[in-house]
Amino acid sequence: MYPVLFNIGAVLIPSYGAMAAVGVLLALFLAQRNARVAGISPAHVWNLSITALFAALVGSRLLLVLVNWRSVVSHPIWILSLAMVHHPLLASAGAFVGLIAAGLYARLHHLPLANTADTLAAPVALGLACEQFGALLAGSGFGKGTTLPWAVIYTNPLAYRWSGAPLGIPLHPVQGYAGVLWLTLAILLLVWLPARRQVGDVAGVALMGSGVVIYITEFWRDWEGRGDLFHGVLDGPQAISILLVIAGAVILRERASLRIAIDHQNEVQVPTEAPHD
Q1: pLDDT at 194 over 80
Q2: Are 134 and 20 in contact (CB under 8 A)?
Q3: Is the dihedral of CA 180, 239, 236, 223 positive or negative?
């Protein structure tokens, strides 16, 4: 595939970074649109998104430097090449740090958490779709070997150097599978936001949908470096995906219980008639 999208002189423009940047821009645009639909200040949503993105980027790169600290100390110039390294654990660490930063910002500025989560659900899914299409080009999070006619073959040495993708071997284009599923989830959440019955429902479905996407696509990914649980029954991302599904189900159940309680309370409140003279 194409780990380098194009060159500007001696400067390489990596496909992964370019597609991730496109995903960020599209997600920010969609978040602004959703904020107006959900009745939240677009300015606060913009600032929250920028804060979370910056925290995720810094957190993932700091982790990469810490893991490779001895190499960085011995060869400081290598820190420039570390920016090209892609690994699922880095993305997970960045997402975790970004989530904490977003929660702190929302709490500091008194933003409604459930409504804010609903607003950001579709943009996050859209950004992940673009990220996975970039990963397909770069070889990051590559798939298992296959003989299927739509298999992808990486031949550029940079795909191995930056992402560890094996060269010359037909592989499942699992990143493309994931990209299509994330895009489908984003469209579903986008359409559902204005039609939701109460706040929090979109976020709950987003968590469950994310868990399903991750769990399914992991069957076609190469498991090297992704953890091995229960003697190979699950890998690390699949374990996390199960937690996401459970968390989403709990949120939806709590919101449904709250709605039923409110409806029941409204039913039992019978208006009293004015006394007759």
Answers
A1: yes
A2: yes
A3: negative
